[in-house]
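fyi for ur records
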Amino acid sequence: MNVPAEKLKAQLAAIFRAWGMSEPATEATSRVMIAADLRGIDSHGILTLPLYDELRLAGKLEMKAEVRIMAESPVTALIDGGGGLGHYPADMAMKLAIDKAAAAGLAAVGVRNSNHYGAAGVYALQAAERGLIGIAMTNVWTSSMVPTRGTRAMFGTNPIAFAAPAAKNPPFCLDMSTATVAVGKLKLAAIRHEPLPRGWALDAEGRPTEDPKVALLTRRLTPLGGTAELGSHKGYGLAAMVEILCAMLTGAWYAPTRERRHPGAKHFNVGHFFMAISPKAFRGEGEFELDLDDMIDALRTVPSADPAQPVLVAGDPERAVIAEREKTGIPVPELLLGEIRSIAQKSGAEAMI
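which gave:
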């Protein structure tokens, strides 16, 4: 079933209000979630609602979270997410980094005491839309990525997003997991009864599995690259870099040592990191954007190995999905649709889809 984006956003907002979220948090969370779905990142949009409901009922999420700026300088800030969902504090942090960078040339803002924040690219693009370079990343509350040569998960999917403005082309936007695949895509495959591509995940013995249910049970994803022979140490290293910036720098927690260092803690204390850079701090007016256009245009002239699959630039696939879904709506699997309706009913919110 395809549902118009605005209708889905209204449904999410109604549920969040019923859960007790503030209006600013409701607006930011529903907007960021729907933006992920519009971009085709289904694993980070409405699909996460049942998980959020589960965490809420388990007492792991504060629905009336107090989001506060804990420390600030002209080019930095640290935000406490109050133990709630990450979309609102992340949205606040990216906007703050953008404003500071517009004035000072560059800025970095960290967030701690947060939770899942959706699709990283949605935040990085906010900077590009303001004429700045944007970087966004997050750690997670549970480990799912096995380090190269290892047998135990030690990192989350730890995504990185990078967006940059061009002059005549749409923004360059790289939005990637440091694992071979996001956990949400395993859930989508399970819902759709589809096998996994080989190399995405491992079973309990560390062998590749194509069964999404097995992969969800073991939660053992490979680092970007898949195997050591194909460079998985690079994805492993990038995941560690994200962890350092999002957890160690902000005061958030590293999931594998959380129980040992913080036994019985109520919240997961997820961390995020954002950076904004003004091209004007380095180049003359419009020079950066024109050079980026030149690179993008050159990439589009590369002959493709398969004429049916032209060479793409980061952000192209998402823009194609946006154009389609703005016309036809966001596809919602029947199983997920039923879960959303059930959550709305149990929360006392109006069922709109």
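The first strand starts at residue 2 and ends at 3. thats all i got for now
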